[in-house]
Design goal:
This protein is mainly alpha-helical. It contains eight helices and two strands; from the N terminus they run βαααααβααα. Strands 1-2 form a two-stranded parallel sheet. It has a single domain, classed as Tetratricopeptide repeat domain (Serine Threonine Protein Phosphatase 5, Tetratricopeptide repeat, Alpha Horseshoe), CATH 1.25.40.10.
């Protein structure tokens, strides 16, 4: 109908915070009415404990043998961020979000929106995900030392 009336259609991507813990509902609901998250398996918990002990390589190694793929990918990706292995971290965290969004938009949904906007005349893309990534301040310009987390978040 929009095309027939020559009305432009806007499609927007949503920013995806791959580092979001996913433990907060975000809608102001009483936490007591939310379903309780299942505790991690013993395997994943061992990986989490290694991560929290700053033993990131050991955490990645341990998590590779876990059956809970989404959680293992998440904690492996977080460990990779700390090790400044940003490309691997992004890939692991994006896969984790695909499997368990935790109140976030799946990266694949943003890809579909971009492809759809590019393929149709009169459809315009509002890429909020890309804008959010480029809007982060550059630590190199401000003179402060970048943390691994800050540097990774600015990667495209």
């Amino acid at each position: 109908m929009a095309r027939a009336r020559a009305v432009p259609l806007l499609l927007a991507t949503l920013p995806v915070n791959l580092l979001y813990e996913g433990t907060v509902d975000g809608r102001g609901l009483d936490p007591s009415i939310l379903p309780a998250a299942a505790p991690p398996s013993a395997c994943v918990q061992e990986g989490i404990d290694l991560y929290r002990s700053d033993r990131h390589e050991d955490a990645i190694d341990r998590l590779q043998s876990c059956d809970e793929i989404a959680d293992a990918l998440r904690w492996s990706g977080l460990s990779m961020v700390q090790l400044e292995r940003f490309d691997e971290a992004r890939a692991a965290l994006e896969q984790s979000v695909e499997l368990r969004p935790r109140n976030r938009c799946r990266p694949s949904f943003n890809r579909i929106i971009r492809e759809t906007a590019a393929a149709h005349e009169g459809v315009h893309l509002v890429d909020l995900d890309a804008a959010a990534r480029t809007a982060l301040p550059s630590a190199s310009r401000s003179g402060r030392r970048r943390s691994a987390r800050d540097a990774w978040r600015r990667e495209p």
